[in-house]
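Email to the structure team, subject: Periplasmic binding protein/LacI sugar binding domain-containing protein model.

Hi all, the expression group asked for a predicted structure before they design truncation constructs. Nothing fancy, just the tokens so they can compare against earlier work. One-line instruction: predict Periplasmic binding protein/LacI sugar binding domain-containing protein, return tokens.
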Amino acid sequence: MSNDCEAAEVLTRSVIDKATKRIAWLEAMPDLSISSERRAGFQAALKGTDIEPLILSGTRYERSEGASLAAQLLDKQGGADALVTASYTLLEGVFDEFLERGGLPDTMRLATFGDHRLLDFLPQPVNSALQDYDRIAELTLKCALAAMNGRYELGLQVVARHLHKR
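Reply from the structure team: attached below.
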């Protein structure tokens, strides 16, 4: 399991600078524990700042929902200086909506949970919170081997995400 609250805080801070006045958080299924943990991290990153948070929630973690949330951000909220999405699929929808409207603003800073190699080729940097799949596999194998040898102990393994700053 990942520490989503801490990862969201680090991810959010990665797109904040002195010029940031408004920052948007796009998520889905707000009552889901993973969504609330990530949102808490986003909010923690803004504590003690004068930055206005814009929190938009959808019903599904789907590309079309990301586009809908981006449209709401632009049409009803007036946009933001920075934008963080709780999943890569939502970010894909954000890209769709901005592309339909002429492209991303040059000054908007972006970050997302999840990653894709294509983010390396965009003209605008997108920071991402990466899962450490090697460490997850290592811990899973270790637990499985311990269980096979009668030494398994119940517990929760937390694996930190890594910030990929572009």
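Strands lie at 22-28, 52-58, 82-85, 109-113, 126-130, 162-164. DSSP finds five helices and six strands in the chain. Ping us if the truncation boundaries need rechecking.
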